[in-house]
Write a structure and sequence with these properties.
Length: 437
């Protein structure tokens, strides 16, 4: 196969793979997103576009290791009963539905900045549903609050979401410098979200009241969907809330603090996180099989496959050609490039999904006037764009699907809040980012 033929085959396989990834399952080929990425990888090798050795080299193992490390730490927090305790803490201190909405937004946003946002939604959603159902509170405002704040809060750090992890390794921006610019953006975004949801649900919240505090009811099923729209049950419905294991919680908290100290000190993000996870496995004295059951292996497989497929596309020069076509529209000054690229990234994230878009657009960043600024703009736009629709991010899907047995949140039910939240937070967040430099 000559070079031209390889390029054609690579583009065809890439397009087919992304059709499966960005759309829902096809009846004739019922593959979820991880399976679609894996199929694309296999096709690239079988068709001779890449050799097995080249496929191995295409995988960004730093991102996979960082994800694994943070998932391990999150798993130990779950086993310690931290997420059950956090949900109960919110309920006990909220004196009104508005306070409950605010506390949930702040908690979800903060935890998503420290841990992977998808994991936070995975752990908190069943508990939030249980609290709201027991208290007779309207579910939609709190479900949207949890999902949207998980997206908004995650932009604050390089470990808040998968696309930020990719950006962190590709850009080599120091952890502290990244957060110094994006943390204020996240705070502003969470404040905007609270105002929009409070105004939009003012009638529902006005007629509600917070039930007296007490222990959490039985937990609904713990769900794991990874990068897929389908919900898969991992633990049986009706599991009682976990008792708070203070020793394990203190140990995990101490390790997490050490991990973030390593991040701030400029140590390798991936191996710092994995070291923290390994240290917990040694010191926690828990059956590690329980821990590994909580790891989202689907997401790791999805990422590994994407790296290979995108690398094949880059080898064809297609990404460079696409950039040449849009370069003129993006402008020449740093401010115009930032504004135009932000909206282009938001659109691309909703068409292709944020992680695939970041993998392709990362090849363009060094062509801009201020590359570091553009890395931050891409982090902001691709993260905040996840709030546009239910399908904009995995966090949204986790929350809405997990609550389906209690309430149906339709596409437009979500979009009438997601659209204004996305537009306002992206616009004002970009202004804040440009002012901070």
């Amino acid at each position: 196969m000559n070079g031209t033929q390889k390029e054609i085959v690579a583009i065809v396989i890439f397009s087919f793979t992304y059709l499966l990834i960005s759309g829902r399952r096809l009846k004739v080929l019922p593959l979820n997103r991880p399976a679609a990425a894996l199929l694309g990888t296999v096709l690239m090798v079988v068709c001779g576009v890449l050799t097995p050795e080249q496929a191995y080299r295409a995988v960004d193992y730093n991102t996979l290791v960082l994800l694994l490390g943070m998932m391990l730490i999150s798993a130990y927090l779950f086993l310690a009963g931290f997420f059950d305790w956090a949900a109960d803490w919110i309920l006990r201190r909220a004196r009104s539905p508005h306070q409950l909405l605010l506390y949930l937004i702040v908690t979800s946003g903060l935890l998503s900045a420290l841990l992977v946002n998808d994991t936070v939604c995975l752990m908190l959603t069943p508990l939030v549903v249980a609290v709201m159902v027991r208290g007779g509170l309207p579910l939609p405002p709190y479900l949207l609050a949890l999902a949207m704040s998980a997206n908004l809060g995650s932009v604050a750090t390089l470990v808040g979401n998968p696309q930020n992890m990719i950006i962190g390794h590709a850009s080599r921006i120091p952890f502290l410098r990244f957060s110094a610019s994006l943390l204020p953006v996240a705070v502003v975004g969470l404040a905007i979200q609270y105002v929009v949801l409070r105004l939009g649900f003012r009638r529902e919240l006005a007629g509600a009241f917070v039930a007296p505090s007490g222990s959490l009811p039985h937990r609904t099923a713990f769900m794991d969907i990874g990068e897929d729209e389908e919900v898969i049950q991992c633990e049986g419905t009706g599991d009682p809330p976990r008792e708070l294991d203070r020793r394990l919680l203190l140990l995990t908290g101490a390790v997490l603090a050490l991990v973030f100290a390593g991040f701030l000190a400029g140590l390798n993000l991936a191996w710092t996180a994995l070291t923290g996870g390994a240290l917990l496995m040694v010191l926690a004295q828990r059956d590690t099989r329980q821990v590994f059951k909580l790891i989202d292996w689907n997401l790791l497989v999805f990422f590994a496959g994407l790296f290979v497929v995108v690398e094949c596309l880059s080898g064809t020069g297609f990404a460079d050609q696409l950039y040449q076509k849009v370069q003129g529209v993006l402008g020449s000054s740093a401010s115009s490039q930032a504004a135009n690229f932000a909206w282009f990234s938001a659109l691309g994230s909703n068409v292709f999904s944020n992680v695939p878009f970041v993998l392709v657009a990362a090849k363009w960043i060094n062509n801009f006037a201020r590359p570091e600024l553009m890395w931050k703009v891409m982090a902001l736009a691709t993260t905040f764009a996840g709030n546009l629709t239910i399908l904009g991010s995995v966090a949204n899907i986790i929350v809405i699907e997990s609550a389906r047995g209690h309430v149906e949140v339709g596409f437009w039910d979500y979009a009438r809040f997601g659209i204004p939240v996305t537009i306002i937070t992206t616009g004002i967040g970009l202004i804040v980012l440009l002012l901070l430099g």
